[in-house]
Amino acid sequence: MSDTSTIDLHDERNAAEGGSGENHERSAPEIRFRLFFKFSFVISLILVLTMTITGWVLTSIQEDALIKEKEKSAEKLIQFVATISAFHIERFSYFVLHENAEMLQAGQGMDADVLSVIVRDVPEDKTKQGKKLHFNGRDPAKIDVPAKYWMKKSMPCVYHGGGANKTVGSVEMIFSLESVFRTIANARLAFILIMLLTIVVIGVAVAWLLMRLVVQPLKILTDSADQIAQGNFDIVVNIQTRDEIGFLGGSITGMSRELKESFSEIASQKEEIQKYSQNLEGMVEQRTAELNSANKELTAVNKQLLSELEMARRVQQGIIPSAETFPRRAELSIGSSYLSMASVGGDLYDVVRIGRNSYGFLIADVSGHGVPAALITTMAKVSFSTHSLFGVPPDEICAKVNRDIHRIIADLGYYLTAYFGILNLENGIFQFTNAGHHAALVWRKRDGSIEKLDSPGLFIGISEDGNYETRVANIEAGDRILLFTDGIVEARNPAGDFFEYERLYDYIETHSELTPTDFVDGLIKTVDAFCDGKPADDDRAVLYVEFVQKMDDN
């Protein structure tokens, strides 16, 4: 026999309506009117408070949501700025930091409401702020937006390279929340107007609904909840209304059944846990054996990786030309050097024969280090060699190489800078194209001056449609062309000072009488002496070409 308790709304209604006499019939309308009036007044007052609180809460939630959305947008933006700033800090490209800050503070092409962007280096004293690396970062004192509308964000600039992460600076950005608070103020004003227009109608309607639909069903629901609290899960709530109260009654009935099933399931799971605890010691031993086996496998894999890394180093040494493989021409004398900071590196130089009496000279630097960068340098060497044909100018060659490289590494986050020039030995005409690299330096024998050969151009691999430009210079007999990568001018000593162009110019001017091979060897030694034992932060590649004489002069 079932002990299910059934509470029926119809029974309570019949009991409440039965046995009414003459006095009840006379006073019923008056009682209903008084109750309705009291309910209307109370509900209207409650609605005023409720809607006021609700409006405030909703707009506060909306305000929090807008601020959180603003914070997410700000986090993404500052993370992006920190990432690109880390690269440019590491490369000493401070003019790019200036341009980025100027664009963000001007709000060009975005709705982030950036008030200030300041990039700093890493201070030696951790209790102090680093030095600002760009002069146009807007100081907080010069911001015309009130400070109560500010949202400050800061993030370290971490440079990812060489298999390790290095903090090279920090970014501090201030965003404006003025638009958020203006939106919330307008929303609150609109809510107050709507509340004033609807409060009376809602109050009367709610009072009437409470009288008819809520008071009596709530008593049934309360009794049912009390029985469930006492541990009686065999409850069936029978409310014959098709509204939320009726739905809640059905939910309570379902909840009581689910609770009964849940307690039964908990008891069953308790037994399983006890059994599992008994077998836990054996499982620990089994896991330990599995971990030991996995460790042996990892050791073997690591040994294999080291072997493959050594093979990659030898392959890279094979693709980079040396004095033995340079062209043997009376018109040319070439010196070179390549030092990678790891087993394999991301720098590249090459000498490519184009036609009978023209040679292409290439220097390139891949973003990042290690095996991925080495693979990209190999692809770049093959692509430049393939597309370097007689009669094709350097800008077209760079454009074709860019398409090749972009097709392979577009989604990998890598790119490379490159400088490619073609020297005609018959007339000394030098055609060159710069793809975001350091410009070539030409030492002029006639007066000992140093000339920079540069042209505008995007990094290779960063976009499918790179724009490049070919420019022309006349190289005379005895002139020398120097190509180099970041590792030369951005080499740093223990104090954090850079080698920079000024020291490079001094070395060129004072060692112009050396042969190209001796010149390059001396330059590498000079940079090492400047670094004073500090490990290299980047690969170092140098290609030095002396145009001995024109073919017509033979």
What does this molecule look like?
With 554 residues, the protein is an alpha+beta fold. It has two domains: 1-237, no CATH class; 320-553, 4-Layer Sandwich (Phosphatase 2c, domain 1). The chain contains eleven helices and 15 strands. The protein has helices at 9-17, 22-90, 94-106, 178-229, 244-278, 280-319, 370-387, 394-409, 486-489, 500-510, 516-531, and strands spanning 5-8, 114-121, 150-161, 164-176, 235-238, 332-339, 347-354, 358-366, 416-424, 429-435, 440-443, 450-453, 471-474, 480-484, 540-547. The strands form four sheets. Strands 6-15-14-11-12 form a five-stranded antiparallel beta sheet. It has a five-stranded antiparallel beta sheet with strand order 7-8-9-10-13. Helix 2 runs antiparallel to helix 3. Residues 1-5 and 9-26 have low confidence and may be disordered.
